[in-house]
Amino acid sequence: MKAFFHKKNLLWLFCILGSLAPLPYALSAGIVQVAMPLWQLILIALLNSSILFGLICWLSSKIVPKTDIHPFLLENPLQRIVYPGIFGGIFLGFVLYFLDKTVFASSLLSGQHPPFWVGAIASIYGAVNEEVLTRLFLLTLIYFLLRKCLPSAKRTLLLWGSTVVVALLFGLGHLPALFKLAPPSGFEIFRVLFLNGIAGVVFGWLYWSRGLWTAMLAHFITDLMIHVFLI
Question: 23, 33, 195, 218: which one has the fewest Cβ atoms less than 10 Å from its Cβ?
């Protein structure tokens, strides 16, 4: 896992830059309302992300080598990263779009999308920062702890268990934005947890079966499908 240590600083830099990606969306949607100059808002975002993701990348560099997960394998990149990332992201995007337009058509948030360029930029944050936080760090951490507590359990069972737990946390992490955009209700909360839970399970599976780059690519393509191409 020596390769991880060579990529830690690069991931950290990507996360710092990625922290700026959701700002246009948050401002345009009214999720963030601040009475300060834009440059101050950007500076605060950069400082906060430098600390948070610096810690996350450092902790991940300590945990990942103690597991049998290999997030950065690059052998056969077309089969391992490009094809599953692109096709998985497109398929998931259509599935989530279909569910949003049918099962959740009555949602107050259904059909609400930012301008396409805002959605495209915000997709970078999901692909980079969210995958580093939820899959590289949280999923690996939970899997590591489960392996310690249940050493005789099957690897696949522990991986799927970790994936489902993190998918639920992934959905919960989207609730604050929901409460800013619509009155909270059981239906709206279920919609956020269900749709993001499906995405979280797919990204988690891609992470431990294909690697972090594949999960990142699939997440980016999925967000583009939902917020740019299918609006």
Answer: 33
